[in-house]
Amino acid sequence: MDVDTLLHALFLGCCNVAQRGDFISGTASIAAQTISVVGTANRAAIGVELALQLAAEVLRVVREHPGRAILLLVDTLGQRLRRHDELLGINAYMAHLAKAIDLAERSGHRVVSLVYGQAVSGGYIAGGMMADACYALSSAEISVMNLPAMARVTKIPQERLEQLSRTSPVFAPGAENYLKMGALDGIWSGDLAESLRAALQGKSGADQRRARGAERGGRTTAMLVSERVRRDALK
User: Residue range 71-81: average pLDDT?
Assistant: First the structure.
């Protein structure tokens, strides 16, 4: 779904959001509430410049509009894979973006992310999964790493990974698999404006992704392992 169509479906024309290249920002009105919209478009590869742009906009909202809800729109191929960005320390810029979103949440802003295109790797982790609540359109494509790349990194044959992806959502891309793993709070279709209104009414709380993954059968041991680590650390 393109940005204009998405914005109309979410806000029914009640928005002042601009797209400048791969960067989206502005304000919108929903249920008599003004919210800030920040995000990426065009399957953006997030380099140091875009990471700083996104973080700066989040920090501006925190500074100038205390408590205002923030909607993160996600369409990214992940961090930009260029020597330029690696030499400048792209990991630190992505961490800065994640910290800016965390600061917004700790400062009382409700932060909701919506994957409407692609969401890959560090671009999604820093610019989407840091939100209080994460959602995706049913047409969205989500993955940490494609299977050929995963095979090269893990040294596991691609054929074996393809077999595993048929039964384990950890190895398989797609919004439904991320829902099973607990990484998504829900998948939206139909009335997107109503879905957003409901999401904005939620409250921040403890991270429930491990619990949701266990309940949905997508990550059966993550919660058990983390609880064991926590107990051992307290001994």
Answer: 94
